Amino acid sequence: IQPIEFERIPAEKLVERVRDDVLQSFPEKDRDSLLAMFSLLGFIDGPDSDWVEFMTVLGLSQRVAWVDEMGERIEVLDTASTTDSFTRLELVKEIADALARQHFSGARPPAQMHEDASRAKEGVRQGNKQIVAFRYARERNISPASRPPEELFSGLPDWGIVPPTVDFWHWLPWETGPFFVEACTGATKELSR
Predict the structure, then answer these.
(1) Higher local confidence (pLDDT), 181 or 76
(2) For a tag on the chain, would you pick the N or C end, based on fewer CB atoms within 10 A?
């Protein structure tokens, strides 16, 4: 395990990092169907919306830091104060992610892994982050559902507001997601209006 360096970054750099993550996480071949699904569920105005921009805005509303691929550096939004609960929880998550990335750094790169193996590795990293943050919050008597302070994202571009239902849907456990979609689409399970 290597020491983790922290670096303050301007809003523009965080936007670039989140956008790159969205481009990598959602292959171009899947974006049209995802956009259509979110449009039919009423989360996005229509199929002419920009999926990458939409997910970038959603990602920016939930991130104050970025971990490099090897887990040796964490870049923190320069307007983030380490005294508010939201930022502290996010930093704990990113530290846990950095340690997990260092632990898994000897594994094959995701591009060379089977899709299921890559998803499993990502699931371990993400699950570990959430468990560590929850335990940290419980230990410190702060809410694990802390919301960011208004001024935190003041330096970020204003692309409009992501509907609160999208934020809610995005964080639903995978077991609950299908029931939520069914509730929105009806018993026929068809994504049509």
Answers:
(1) 76
(2) C
Question: Cα separation of 62 and 56, whole Å?
Answer: 10
Residue ranges with strand state E in the chain:
5-9, 65-67, 73-77
DSSP per-residue codes, 54-102: HHHHHHHTT-SEEE-TTSSEEEEETT--TTSHHHHHHHHHHHHHHHHHH
Contact of 93 with 130, CB cutoff 8 Å: yes
Say if CB 72 and CB 102 are below 8 A apart.
yes
Beta pairing partners, 65: 76
b/e map 61-98, b = 16+ CB within 10 Å: bebbbbbeeebbbbbbbebbeeebbbbbbbbbbbbbbb
- pTM for the model stands at 0.71
pLDDT tier for residue 144 given thresholds of 50, 70 and 90:
confident
